[in-house]
Amino acid sequence: MDIHELCSRFGYREYMIERYLKLFGEERIIEFLEGNEQKLIPTIKVNTLRISREELYEKLTKKGFHLDPIPFIPDAFYVRHEPFSVGASTEYLLGYYYIQGAASMIPSMLLNANSQDLVVDMCAAPGGKTIQLAQAMKNEGILFALDLSRDRMKSLRSNLARCGVKNVIAIRMDAATLGELKMHGISKILLDAPCSGSGLIPSDPTRKMSRGYEDITSCSVTQLKLISVAINALEPGGELVYSTCSIEPEENEYVIDAVLNQFGVKLVDLGLTIGEPGLLETFGKHVAPDLKKARRLYPYLHRTEGFFVCKLKKME
Amino acid sequence: MIQFREINSLERDLVRDRLKSSLKFEAFDDVIMPFRIIIAEGEWKEVLLISEAMHIVFFEFKEFRQPYFMGIHLGDIKKNNFKISLEGITLIANHIKEKTILSVSGEKRVLYGRDLSKDNLASIPAGIQENDKSILINENGEVLALGKYLFNRDQIEKSKGNQVVVKNIMDKGWYLRKGK
User: Fold this and answer.
1) Chain center to CA of A62
2) Backbone angles phi, psi at A223, to 5 degrees
3) Do residues A142 and B54 lie in contact, with contact meaning Cβ atoms separated by under 8 Å?
4) Interface of A with B (CB under 8 A)
5) May I ask the CATH architecture of the domain A43-99?
6) Residues of B in contact with A88 (CB under 8 A)
7) CB-based contacts of B61: which residues, under 8 Å, 6+ apart?
8) Is pLDDT at A1 greater than 90 in this prediction?
């Protein structure tokens, strides 16, 4: 297969095609690349703090939106037709739903937070996953939302206010310094880690050219640092969901493999009906067999953003 | 640098009085007092409502790091005056009897941040007077905005179709215009 021809046909940097050829093989790479060319269907998550799924369905349908349930996420819809932008309806402004990629709805769901938990969302802005956690916690308990960027904190605040979230303490800080808060009793942590974003190519094709291999390695260093801090902050028996919108093994399986070796944590079965198992051998590197419990989602297979998710439990 | 602290009694009375006088909100003890009321003091004072559980945790870690925000933002105290927020009006709306109901055209207009004319109003509270503030809802009873009447009821009835009669103080279109 001619790498240069694929680069020019699909508009990628060469190193990416070389990598994807190794990851997907000659038989699947075209399917994968073509999948990235198709726009994803917009998806919304019902904010059950404000409205029921049925009521929202009725309201939006009356206005001419065509909605289909997302089979693998409760209280979520594909927006098949929008008479006007789904982000500009009265219902959106009233906080009845938020717009979020289907795969991005999975991590908060997997964390199974409840009102008795002390939860930390380590990279919270713009807040879709935080709102989902607040819903699971019935707006009770304590949910720490951390983010470093001032601008992103503003959008986090606006989104939480719009959606009626009231159990959040938001702190503008580098999540890598979580330990400085000296918080005890953290039972659950969501780490949707900053990443190279290669899973977002269907919605942002500029990422085909704008990221280099050094971005993958530098993200991977940050991710390992963040997850290590998270595991240290978690109480024994506590749970951590790790996710990225990258499909690069260095940002996913390799990071988890490293913490499985360094810390007393184990991977937990996710019970998801969607996704492929984590990759156990890539670029000549083998990782722990338990990583098959992780899940990968791809635009060409699942019609979601490219995504990686897994759940770790800290040993007692 | 913003400092977080408990509300003092003067500030609490100010908030209570302003909500009562400007919006006829009488349920302060039932709706607001179950929360712990926190002041985030910087250039102005933000009034925040948090749960008892959040309060305990907040005081455990606040010596290490200040929050950026927390709980419900009820409003702001500026120059000894209290201004309610969008979150605040949503919180108290169910406890205020008289609200202004907007027509479909009024709903659209107010969410674009515009002021309202007589034709945009489906129902006006009975005793409304010039300068009264009123929560603006749509025909489904959903809270959209806070407005200020520029005329009394009789004057509004006599006003021309496109004359502005209610000034838009704040509306939920803000989340799209500025809050992104």
Assistant:
1) 31
2) -60, -40
3) yes
4) 87-88, 90, 92-94, 118, 140-142, 153-155, 157-159, 161-162, 164, 166-173, 180-184
5) 2-Layer Sandwich (3.30)
6) 176
7) A181, A182, A183
8) no
Q: Within chain B, which residue ranges are assigned CATH 3.10.450.220?
A: 3-93
Q: Is B66 on the interface with A (CB under 8 A)?
A: yes
Q: What pLDDT is recorded for position A192?
A: 98
Residue B43 pLDDT: 93
Structure letter (DSSP) for residue B163: S
Its pTM stands at 0.96
pLDDT tens sequence across B115-153:
999 999 999 998 899 999 999 999 999 999 999 999 999
Contact between A182 and B64 using a beta-carbon 8 Å cutoff: yes
pLDDT at B180 over 90: no
Helix (H) or strand (E) holding A269: none
- CATH architecture assignment, domain B3-93: Roll (3.10)
Give the Cα separation of B19 and A223 in Å (integer): 47
* The CATH number fitting domain B98-177, selected from 3.40.50.20, 2.30.130.10, 3.30.1660.10, 3.40.50.1820: 2.30.130.10
Tokens of A139: 């707006």
Does ipTM exceed 0.90?
A: yes
Task: Decide the pairing of beta strands B36-41 and A118-121.
Answer: unpaired
Residue B109, pLDDT > 80, answer yes
Q: Hey, is the C-beta of B28 within 8 angstroms of any chain A C-beta?
A: no
Give the pLDDT band of residue A265 (cuts 50, 70, 90): very high
What value does the mean pLDDT of chain A take?
Answer: 97
> Which residue in chain A is spatially nearest to B66 when comparing CA positions?
A171
Q: What is the pLDDT of residue B65?
A: 83
Answer whether residue B64 shows pLDDT above 80: no
Looking at chain A, which residue has its C-alpha nearest residue B68? A171
Which CATH fold topology does A105-314 show? Rossmann fold (3.40.50)
For residue A195, indicate whether it is catalytic. Answer: no
Which residue in the set A93, A166, A183 is minimally distant from B61, CB to CB? A183
> In the sheet that B164-171 helps form, which strands lie side by side, from edge to edge?
B116-117, B164-171, B143-149, B133-137, B100-102, B121-123
DSSP assignment of A125-151 equals TT-HHHHHHHHHTTT-SEEEEEE--HH
Q: Do B175 and A171 touch (CB under 8 A)?
A: no
pLDDT at residue B97, as a whole number:
92
pLDDT tens-digit readout, A109-148: 999 999 999 999 999 999 999 999 999 999 999 999 999 9
Q: Do A93 and B87 touch (CB under 8 A)?
A: no
Report domain extents, chain A: 3-37, 43-99, 105-314
Band (pLDDT 50/70/90 cuts) for residue B178 is confident
